[in-house]
C-alpha cells in the first residue's frame, strides 16, 4: 500500500512539473505550493486507514505534521509574507518527518518536497522597464 501511494505521489509531482513547464502559469509559485499541499493531503488520506490500523490514535500526528507543514507556504502566500522562507521551512519539516518515518509511511510524503523547493527557487519574470 505504501509503495502504491509513493508512486502515485511521484507521478503527481511529475504531472505538476509537466503542466508548469508546458503551460507556464502566471503565478508558478502558487501552483507549486497548492499542488504540494494537495499531494500531501491525498497521501495522508490514502495512508490514513493503514496508519490507523497500525498506530491507532498516533495516526493523527503521524499524518498531520506533513499536512500542517504543507499548509504553511499557502498561508504565507495568502498574507504575502516570507513566502520563500515558508517554502524552505515546510520542505525541511516534511523531509525531516519523512526521514524520521522513512521505514514506514514517511517516504510517501517526500515527493511533495520537490514542489516546495521548486517554489522557493523559481524566478519571477523580470518586470518590464518603465524607463524608455
UniProtKB/TrEMBL annotation:
Superkingdom to which the source organism belongs: Bacteria
Keywords carried by this UniProt record: Membrane, Transmembrane, Transmembrane helix
Positions of transmembrane segments: 6-22, 34-52, 58-76, 88-118
This protein's name: Uncharacterized protein
Originating organism: Micromonospora parva
Amino acid at each position: 500500500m505504501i509503495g502504491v501511494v509513493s508512486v502515485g505521489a511521484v507521478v503527481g509531482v511529475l504531472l505538476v512539473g509537466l503542466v508548469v513547464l508546458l503551460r507556464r502559469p502566471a503565478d508558478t509559485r502558487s501552483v507549486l505550493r497548492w499542488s504540494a499541499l494537495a499531494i500531501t493531503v491525498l497521501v495522508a488520506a490514502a495512508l490514513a486507514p493503514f496508519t490507523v490500523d497500525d498506530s491507532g490514535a498516533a495516526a493523527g500526528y503521524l499524518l498531520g505534521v506533513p499536512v500542517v507543514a504543507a499548509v504553511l507556504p499557502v498561508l504565507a502566500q495568502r498574507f504575502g509574507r516570507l513566502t520563500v522562507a515558508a517554502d524552505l521551512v515546510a520542505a525541511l519539516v516534511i523531509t525531516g518527518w519523512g526521514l524520521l518515518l522513512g521505514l514506514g509511511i514517511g517516504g510517501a510524503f517526500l515527493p511533495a518536497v520537490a514542489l516546495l523547493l521548486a517554489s522557493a527557487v523559481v524566478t519571477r519574470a523580470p518586470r518590464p522597464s518603465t524607463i524608455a
